[in-house]
From TrEMBL, chain A:
GO terms for molecular function: ATP binding; ATP hydrolysis activity. This is Fe-S cluster assembly ATPase SufC. SUPFAM superfamilies: P-loop containing nucleoside triphosphate hydrolases. It comes from Methylocystis rosea. InterPro entries: AAA+_ATPase, ABC_transporter-like_ATP-bd, FeS-cluster_ATPase_SufC, P-loop_NTPase.
């Protein structure tokens, strides 16, 4: 069976500076992977390279989503193909109503996949269901996208988008940053509802705390732009004890 | 705004010579109403001639260079032109009271002047003058002191327009829409309107200018508005002129105590568009909100020039202008705030924001402040930039294609000025116009 995400010896740079140095990672459908690592180890870079952010350039190697070469797709094509990046810092989009944004995103993806568009009443109904799971006030969703939202509200909104769009592969970039414990539980609950045999989830985090709520199948340690160790969920606990110092010196 | 006296030796441009000829013909055809006012205005114009780039107020719109010839004064429109005006400037979902002018002439059969609300009077300018409407004849040309050659020309040649009066305390819900449609022939239109909103009254006025033709034509329009104490007016001016049209428009308003003016000018087409506003805040606690939006492409040029005269205490003015410029289009924003001695607690703010969609587009912003009171707040600012790449990435990362992401963000940029329009159906119609215009760019 083809892996959902297959990264082979990936090298990537920003503005001429190499950040990923031969990255290998395979995520199969149904798996939850955690990528942990110290600040500056290139965790966010990985998420941006995969989603196609301008300025991030693959120089060697390959990243395949369900067998398709991501580097050959535009940012929106990657999203339609099933890649979702939950941003570490979701952006405020003044003047664009949240429902307009959700409708545009969902229907653009469906159109690209040759599926039928979702009607406005169905969309509103679905968004209401999701808002309830994520303990969000519908009033918030009548505002422009993320405008005036607290850090926690932005992460809930990000999770709502992910649940609505039902991607094949979810990448959560430090979703726990800026979250209090209640919001962390609510967001984790939303993510856990997305766990399924057809879907892969990659949780990028600095702290073990998030993994108390989203239990990973595999834990990787990233340092200096590549994975330096892989283990089970107990590896996260070990890191909490020992810290990253050991891996930083190893990589150096 | 003053002009240095020109040496008598300057040779008139062809256009200036032609204007003098037409004025002489107008005089000899039998003195029209307001003959004295017209003559004084033409003399004032003749002293300076057409304004050029050395006149500070016309620095970026050199009318002397732009107006190479003068199109003839319009002849009465043909029936076919009237017929096609039936559907002109219709705002989707807005039930307005339409007052229609085709090729500079009032067309009663296309206008809806039946069953006017009690206290509302709407009469064409020619009719008001023919009837000798004494109040109108004193107010025309006297709403504010305006020393400007384009406005002087309008006064000298004013042809048709409307006189509207909203009686004291009357609230007119249905928007009054003046529809000015260009005729099929090259022509010059001098349009002039007077709107008086009496004490405590309120109304919504829409002025729509449209030209389907690719013919060259010139519009010189002027609207004078008197807001008496506590009166409130929302005014919208939508200019969607033909591709070769030159449109110069002057807006003069006087605000008495606690009057509220909300003005929104929307430029959607025309080769050269100049909107100049002279806002005289004469009463305490009056508020003027002035907003504008330009969505320009090709070589279109739009100039918004504001003159805000605060002459009373505790008055406010808020100006916000937004431009979306594609191709090699140009937008000009000039704003001058004058705070007169004694106009304490004035709060005046101006902001111009420009979104450049192309490297060839150009924005010029020039604020001027003259403050003669010591307890006031005045601020001005301008920004010029491109769409935020990070936002485009965020939208695309959710599956929205690049072009659609750009349109959504551009609509959002313009949306800020449209959201402030109080009349909901008009606001929705304007949003639809923005989307339509951006889709066809």
């Amino acid at each position: 069976m083809t892996a959902l995400l297959e990264i082979r010896d990936l090298k990537a740079e920003i503005a001429g500076k190499q950040i990923l140095n031969g990255y290998d990672l395979t995520v199969k459908a149904g798996e939850v992977h955690a990528i942990m690592g110290p600040n500056g180890s290139g965790k966010s870079t990985l998420s941006y390279v995969l989603s196609g952010r301008p300025g991030y350039k693959i120089t060697e190697g390959q990243a395949l989503l369900a067998g398709a070469d991501l580097s050959q797709m535009s940012v929106d094509e990657r999203a339609a193909a099933g890649l979702f990046l939950a941003f570490q810092y979701p952006l405020e989009v003044p003047g664009v109503a949240t429902m307009t944004f959700l409708r545009a995103a969902l229907n653009a993806q469906r159109k690209k996949r040759g599926e039928e568009e979702m009607s406005s009443p169905d969309l509103i109904k679905r968004v209401k269901e999701l808002a309830k799971i994520l303990d969000m006030d519908m009033e918030m969703l009548r505002r422009p996208v993320n405008v005036g939202f607290s850090g926690g509200e932005k992460k809930r909104a990000e999770t709502l988008q992910m649940m609505l769009l039902e991607p094949k592969l979810c990448i959560l970039d430090e979703t726990d940053s800026g979250l209090d414990i209640d919001a962390l539980k609510v967001v984790s609950n939303g993510v856990n509802q997305l766990r399924s045999k057809d879907r892969g989830i990659v949780v990028i985090t600095h702290y073990q705390r998030l993994l108390d709520y989203i239990t990973p199948d595999v834990v990787h340690v990233q340092s200096a732009g590549r994975i330096v160790r892989t283990g089970g969920k107990e590896l996260a606990l070990e890191l909490e004890e020992t810290g990253y110092a050991r891996y930083q010196s190893e990589a150096a | 705004m003053g002009n240095a006296p020109t040496t008598p030796a300057r040779k008139l441009t062809d256009a200036e010579a032609r204007l003098a000829e037409i004025f002489a013909m107008q005089q000899s055809a039998g003195a029209p109403q307001l003959a004295k006012l017209r003559t004084a205005a033409f003399d004032a114009f003749a002293k300076t001639g057409l304004p050029n780039r050395r006149d500070e107020a016309w620095k970026y719109t050199d009318l002397r260079a732009l107006l190479r010839d003068v199109k003839p004064l319009a002849e009465p429109p043909e029936d076919s032109a009237k017929q096609s005006a039936r559907s002109a400037a219709v705002l989707e979902g807005v039930t307005s009271r339409r007052v229609v002018f085709v090729g500079g002439y009032f067309v009663p059969e296309l206008s809806d002047l039946a069953d006017l609300e009690a206290g509302l009077s709407v009469v064409s300018l020619s009719e008001a003058l023919a009837k000798g409407d004494a109040a109108a004849m004193t107010q025309i040309g006297n709403v504010g002191e305006v020393d400007d050659p384009a406005f002087a020309l309008n006064t000298a040649f004013m042809g048709e327009g409307v006189v509207i009066r909203v009686g004291a305390g009357v609230c007119v819900d249905r928007p009054i829409q003046l529809v000015f449609v260009a005729g099929a022939q090259p022509a010059t239109y001098f349009l002039r309107s007077l709107v008086v909103v009496e004490k405590g009254a309120r109304a919504t006025l829409i002025e729509s200018f449209e030209g389907e033709t690719t013919q060259e034509y010139h519009v010189n329009a002027a609207t004078e508005i008197v807001l008496e104490e506590g009166a409130s007016l929302e005014r919208l001016k939508i200019s969607r002129e033909g591709a070769a049209a030159m449109h110069v428009s002057t807006f003069v308003a006087s605000l008495a105590a606690d009057a509220q003016l909300s003005d929104f000018g929307f430029n959607l087409g025309g080769a050269v568009l100049r909107n100049q506003s002279f806002i005289n805040i004469n009463g305490q606690g009056a508020h003027a909100g002035l907003r504008g939006a330009n969505i320009l492409k090709g070589k279109e040029h739009a100039d918004a020039t504001l003159f805000l005269d605060h002459a009373a205490e505790r008055s406010e003015s808020k100006a916000l202008f937004k431009s979306v410029l594609d191709d090699s289009s140009q937008a000009v924003f000039q704003g001058k705030i004058l705070v007169r001695p004694g106009a304490q607690k004035t709060d005046a703010r101006m902001m111009a924001r420009t979104l450049l969609l192309s490297e060839g587009a150009q924005a010029n912003c020039k604020p001027e402040l003259e403050i003669f009171a010591d307890d006031v707040q005045c601020a001005h600012g301008s920004t010029v930039g491109a769409l935020d790449e990070n936002l485009i990435f965020y939208l695309m990362a959710r599956g929205i294609p690049q072009v659609e992401a750009q349109s959504l963000l551009t609509e959002a940029f313009v949306g800020e000025v449209i959201d402030a329009v109080a009349n909901r159906s008009v606001r929705d119609a304007l949003s639809a116009l923005v989307s339509e215009r951006l889709r066809t760019r």
